[in-house]
Specification:
Blueprint: H1 3-9, H2 29-33, H3 43-72, H4 81-105, H5 128-169
Helix pairs in contact: 3-4
């Protein structure tokens, strides 16, 4: 296997670009000119940012599949480790780019509750009161779990302390 001839046959055009076609700019060029007049918290901006995030995710999924294919077929004839390495680097850059996009837009901060398969697409999202109740129950469960752990730790410390005083008394 001659890796130098394989890596020389790898053209730069076959390596996916490390960033998305729009480069590091996350909003479309037309929206950049309208940022003075457009509220970044508007529903239209949210929809646009979600669409851009979905495009990022689709690209990441494609790169991940390509990387997986390259790794699974690493020992097959004609597979280039340099190409797989370049795809892994592109995947890492795409993930960093997506994380930065989430930080800049705040899209990553929005909760996306899981939807059971039985719910239809027309089902209504939970109300604020339902979300508060759900969060309160979850916090109470976590608090009770922490309280039980703390009580168990106290019992263990008391037992160890009692065993230590008995061994010193002998």
């Amino acid at each position: 296997m001659n890796t130098s001839s394989q890596s020389s046959t790898l053209s730069m055009s076959s390596i996916p670009p490390p960033v998305f076609p729009n480069g590091p700019v996350f909003m479309s060029q037309s929206s950049l000119h309208d940022t003075v007049h457009t509220d970044p918290n508007s529903p239209d901006a949210l929809k646009q940012n979600v669409q851009i995030a979905l495009d990022h995710v689709a690209r990441i999924q494609s790169l991940a599949r390509s990387c997986l294919h390259g790794i699974q077929n690493a020992y097959q004839a004609g597979n280039s480790p340099a190409h797989t390495t370049a795809e892994l680097a592109a995947l890492m850059q795409a993930l960093r780019s997506l994380a930065e996009f989430f930080r800049q837009t705040g899209i990553g901060a929005y909760p996306l509750p899981p939807t059971p398969e039985s719910q239809s697409a027309s089902s209504t999202p939970p109300t604020e009161h339902e979300l508060i109740d759900s969060t309160t129950r979850e916090v109470e469960v976590l608090y009770e779990r922490l309280k039980r752990i703390q009580e168990s730790n106290t019992v263990a410390v008391n037992l160890l302390g009692a065993a230590d005083t008995v061994s010193r008394a002998r």
